[in-house]
Amino acid sequence: MDRKSVIMCVLAILVAAYMGFAMTLSTRMAAADTLTGMEVTLSDPMSRFVSVRDVVIESGIDPDTLSRCRRSTFDLRSLEERLLASDKLQDANAYLLSDGKVRIDVTPMIPVARVFEPGKASYYINAAGKRISAELRYHIDVPVLVGRFDSVHPAQRLLPLLDYIANHRKAGAMVATVTQEADGNIIIVPTIVGHVVNFGDTSRVNEKFALLRAFYRHVAPVKGWDAYDTIAVKWRGQIVASRRDKSVPPPPLPIEVEQTGAFDINDNATVAKSTPEEADA
Predict the structure, then answer these.
(1) How far is residue 3's CA from residue 7's CA, in Å, rounded to a whole number?
(2) Which of 149, 173, 199, 239 is most exposed, with minimal Cβ within 10 Å?
(3) How many CB atoms lie within 10 A of CB 140?
(4) What crossing angle do the helices spanning 76-84 and 52-59 adopt, rounded to 10°?
(5) Which tens digits make up the pLDDT trace of 55-84?
(6) DSSP classification of residue 254
(7) What is the mean pLDDT of residues 118-147?
């Protein structure tokens, strides 16, 4: 064998060795670049709205096919967008771990009220007003909102009132249901049956509840608990109570100012004037 043939054989052996090494290396690199699984963490493991299985379904990913996905081309942003679009999740973050797993941290939706609209399926809303489908598999004990809601008077406009009710025991004990009329007036159905409370809007919430307590303390025991069908606290510094029987003239009772120094009566309604400080006394 001449010198040239020897060189060609050596080169062929080197090329074969290089190809074998390159293929082995590329196989290892490809294996190292593929995803190895999915890990889901709930901020509230006891959430009744969301389970780990729910998150996997909402992600749109089949865990059995993750090993075919490459880390370098996996779209984490799209995954987060899909999760955030879910009505079950309040927040979501996705990232890759060093071992090739996709890690998903989610905050389940936290409902603050359940909304009932005529002719529509009920739903929950969170503190930001995001809707959550009401499914038969769970029921959360939260305040109920009833009425017609639109872009002008959306359900989330009632959230300041709901937040106050949730954080003030006395106010919460007074409220059974919150409704909204077509004109936007907020109506409270109290736990004391026989009348409703026209709350107006969500301004001066503390003052309005104070006036309502003043009415229950000073007026209702004197006039009778079934004397009025509507109690309005929507106006600043006063309560206007509408008599249940509009055909009966007001009884010849002395004005309340003679008894308490805080209230007055006219022919159309009972007007109670007080300040939150007086009502809380």
Answers:
(1) 6
(2) 173
(3) 14
(4) 120
(5) 988 888 888 887 778 877 888 889 999 999
(6) P
(7) 79
Q: What is the pLDDT of residues 149-191, one digit of tens each?
A: 888 888 888 888 888 887 888 888 888 888 888 888 999 988 8
Pairing label, strands 131-133, 123-126: antiparallel
Please state, in angstroms and as integers, the Cα–Cα distance from residue 152 to each residue in 78, 122, 145, 157, 214, following that order: 33, 20, 16, 9, 32
Q: Do 126 and 107 form a contact (C-beta atoms < 8 A)?
A: no
List the Cα angle 34/40/43 in 5-degree steps. 150
What predicted TM-score, i.e. pTM, was given to this entire model?
0.56
